[in-house]
Amino acid sequence: MREGHPAPAVLITRPEPGAAETAARVAALGWQPLEAPALLLAPRPFISPRGAQALLLTSRAAARCLPATLPRSLPVLAVGEATAAEARAHGFVKVAAAEGDAAALARLATARLDPKAGPLLLAVGAGYGQDLAAALRAAGFRVLRRIAYAAAPAAALPAPARAALADNQVAAALFFSPRSAAAAIALLRQAGLGERAASMAALAISPRVAEAARAALAPFTWQSLKVAARPDQDSLLQLLDPS
Known about the structure:
Blueprint: E1 9-12, H1 18-28, E2 32-35, E3 39-43, E4 54-57, H2 60-64, E5 76-78, H3 81-89, E6 95-97, H4 102-112, E7 120-125, H5 130-138, E8 143-153, H6 159-166, E9 170-175, H7 178-190, E10 201-204, H8 207-217, E11 224-227, H9 233-237
Parallel strand pairs: 1-2, 1-9, 4-5, 4-7, 5-6, 7-8, 9-10, 10-11
Antiparallel strand pairs: 3-8
């Protein structure tokens, strides 16, 4: 950013509590973060089954919502390093990380675990994890899919984000999941701001998220649509042009 000019704004659509962390990272890079979580997360009652050989986690949100009754000695396979770190922060001691997406997590599970050693406990958000469960079952595993949290769309854009969008002050929007991308774009449309995408870059954490951001905005189009080199936050934030 040029000295003496206000920092362009970046719309952060990630749910809390992750939105605050991302906002801090965006600010440290010299941008103005605008938190606008598109989804609201809430824990769901979770009964810990017995006999699982390992716990699989597809998100940090799932790791945060696990009950204290779940043994922390249970081996954990996490979708990526950030989710692995969250699991460790919540007391799990045997944690391994895949390379950032569900396909990589399935590969890690099939490489490290034996279908004959017991079922896999898959902790996910409501509406998530069906494809991963199907892939693991096809590999011979018994999968216990349990809902750790539910996500509901936010009611409206926060006032600061709405005002900045209306004034064309937002340079880019960050998208972390297909569902949150679709929900965020629905909020833009609800506020009558869908056409503002023509002046914004959409930065997506994966190709699936990019496709959701593109499809949900049609017939409007983003100024540009970029995909992170790897499905993690560090790679996503590298898409922010420091110039």
